[in-house]
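Closing statement on the NAP sub-project.
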Amino acid sequence: VIILQQYVCVTGADRGLGFAFAKQFLHKGYVVFAGQYMSSWKELEALHEEFPDRLYIIDLDISNDESVKKAGQYIASITDRLDILVNNGAIIGDTTATIFDELDFNQILNVINVTGLGGLRVTNALIPLVMNSETKLIVNISSEAGSIGQCTRKAWYGYMMAKASVNMHAAITQNMIYDDGGQVLNFHPGWVKSYMSGQLNTNAAITADESAENLMELIAKHKEYAGPTPAFIDNLGNPQLW
Ligand SMILES: NC(=O)c1ccc[n+]([C@@H]2O[C@H](COP(=O)([O-])OP(=O)(O)OC[C@H]3O[C@@H](n4cnc5c(N)ncnc54)[C@H](OP(=O)(O)O)[C@@H]3O)[C@@H](O)[C@H]2O)c1
């Protein structure tokens, strides 16, 4: 049996969950294209010293058409297939303004551009490579915050509207690729100790490594979640309300 080299792209891989994914995919033997947004953060460089042959660090601003196109062309110059795309990069924006405050629509638009459209932009650029692979898997790191059915917060307009749009992007894309063996899987990663607030949030429930470990297990058995509509599950496999 010849085992084909597996390829994965992870966006927002500087730190937090994206970095944990990049590291864990490398340990599993994948070739990893890690989207770097903040080159001043050095964790990816250190990882590259450990895996010089299988880690490609690529400049990738998922909010920028040109940046995404360039990254897509670069990846396509290395491989003609991408087994897994992990759309992870996101920003949170304001979490305090309610409907009674003066909302900052430019900021909300920016959050929607990064967190909502970022994954769609990258998927759009990489879909030919994904559909050319064996696995054909698109993983979106969504959030319970993107659920309309279980919405309890009274603020967080940008982030929650953006994540709801990630869920819709998943459904539309799945409709298009399902017949050809493609699959979109949306995750709520748990409450993760990460850098969303600008510094490491140690109050959260689990580390990025723990979340990524859980999600890697679910990715390994992704076919169990395949169907005409995408699955939306948390890091322990519990279904989330859309
Ligand atoms: N933490 C949680 O409890 C939680 C819960 C539910 C869902 N999530 C989701 O989990 C995913 C990972 O987040 P995290 O918790 O690991 O937070 P994080 O540490 O802030 O990671 C997000 C990553 O996205 C990057 N990024 C920001 N803007 C970008 C852009 N324009 N282009 C490309 N990358 C960009 C960030 O880079 P910089 O650090 O350089 O800004 C960072 O590396 C996100 O989709 C988030 O919404 C997290």
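The two ends are 41 Å apart (CA to CA). With this model delivered, the sub-project is considered complete and its resources will be redirected to Aim 3.
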